[in-house]
Amino acid sequence: MTAPRLHPIYADMPVTIFEEMSGLARQTGAINLGQGFPDGPPPPALLEALARASAEQSHQYPPMAGLPELRRAVAAFYARTQGLDLPPESVIVTSGATEAVASAILAVVQPGDEVLLFSPAYDAYAPLVRRAGGVPVFIALQPPAWRYDRAAIEAAITPRTRALVLNDPLNPTGTAASPSDLAMLAELCVSHDLFAICDEVWENVRFDGQRHDSLLAQPGMERRALKIGSAGKIFGATGWKVGWIVAAPDIAAVVGRAHQFLTFTTPPMLQWAVAEGLDRPDIARSCTARWAETRAALIEALTREGFATLPNAATWFSCIDLPASGITLDDRTFALRAVHQAGVASIPLSALWEGAGAPTNIVRLCHCKPETMLMDAVERLARWRDGLGAS
Ligand code: GLN
Question: With contact defined as beta carbons under 8 Å apart, do 381 and 307 qualify?
């Protein structure tokens, strides 16, 4: 008797690098600068809004596309922060941004379609494209600036190319596309008739006074861009899993059809709290300001201890260059040994790279933690590195 076979995409797949490293951190008691999440709770005003909503509002299914109040608040947030003019009908609320990515890919990709992904790429994209019957086509970004190379993109486009996935700002590098990158990507989408699935979950975690501009706002993109956002990233509440997708209303409606058979709805009390949070600009601003401080603290401590950091401008992450920091291990060996021997978890960049040319000299560290924890982690890493040469 043969046993039924599970889908090889999943059957042959390990758990994500985030799950692996957080699991090792739990097991060993290491400081977890791997998976990205803040250590503390979300802002008190958000917790109060959640408690109020939980006491006063319905706990039953909200509308599939999201509470009208949250759809309106998301549209208003984008009008205020990015100058986008979107009706509430352009917003579909999802259970986290990964569900939004899945819904977008399911709504866009048909069997045989090619989808352009930029390496390093968030780990969910390629498996979702493959499960939708599509073919991921990887285009490598070049460190340290991780720029988008027009010639490389044009060379990758074929008559079967249906879409590109742009993660901007980019996880794991913490860099952001330049205005000319965005203009060039929009031009290519228009001239090759492509959709752009824009994972912009880090849009509000930008530093040095930089404002976020969406690919959706570029000429010709209103009917091509599907823009994804995340309350977890805006407010530092990663376990809430409240995200959304924004597109022209008729496109959003179709994405909603894919979403309705994934999670259908998102807990209403969380939606109420996020709506209230988005309506109070000071809350999101203070989160970003706090993370600007933790980013500076981590980079300062790393630099002081002789670690070479790569330039970044956004996200909860800073990357270090291992050889330039006096470490000859490759990134995965570093991450596995550091969690056990130094007591610090990190993310090796090559885990988020498919296709040729993966750099193996870069690891990602998460900074949205108390400064004392960051100092402790850097000191542990420095002491351990200094002992590496001797052993
Ligand atoms: N976005 C988180 C990170 O980059 C990981 C989320 C997850 O664990 N799937 O660290």
Answer: yes
For the domain bounded by 44-280, which CATH number is listed?
3.40.640.10
**Ligand 1 atom with minimal separation from the 366 CA:** 10
Q: What angle do CA 101, 104, 107 make, to 5 degrees?
A: 150
Query: Which protein residue has the closest C-alpha to ligand 1 atom 2?
Result: 36
- Which tens digits make up the pLDDT trace of 146-180? 999 999 999 999 999 999 999 999 999 999 999 99
Q: Pick the atom of ligand 1 nearest to 122's CA.
A: 4
Mutate to test the pocket of ligand 1, among 171, 364, 366 (most ligand atoms within 8 A of CB): 171
- Cα(16)–Cα(11) distance, rounded to whole angstroms? 13
For the chain, the domains span 8-42+283-390, 44-280
What global pTM score does this model have? 0.97
- The domain made up of 8-42+283-390 has a fold known as Aspartate Aminotransferase, domain 1 (3.90.1150)
Q: What is the distance, to the nearest Å, from the Cα of residue 212 to the centroid of all Cα atoms in its chain? A: 15
- Residue percentage of the chain with pLDDT more than 70: 99
The rounded Cα 373 to chain-centroid distance in angstroms is 23
Instruction: Give distance in angstroms: CA of 385 to centre of ligand 1.
Output: 26
CB-side neighbour CA atoms (13 Å) of 20: 13
Alpha carbon nearest to ligand 1 atom 8, residue: 18
Instruction: Give me 160's structure tokens.
Output: 């079967």
Angle at which helices 68-82 and 281-304 cross, to 10°: 60
Question: Where do the DSSP E strands lie in the chain?
Answer: 31-32, 91-94, 114-119, 135-140, 161-167, 195-199, 225-230, 243-246, 308-309, 317-321, 344-345, 347-348, 362-366
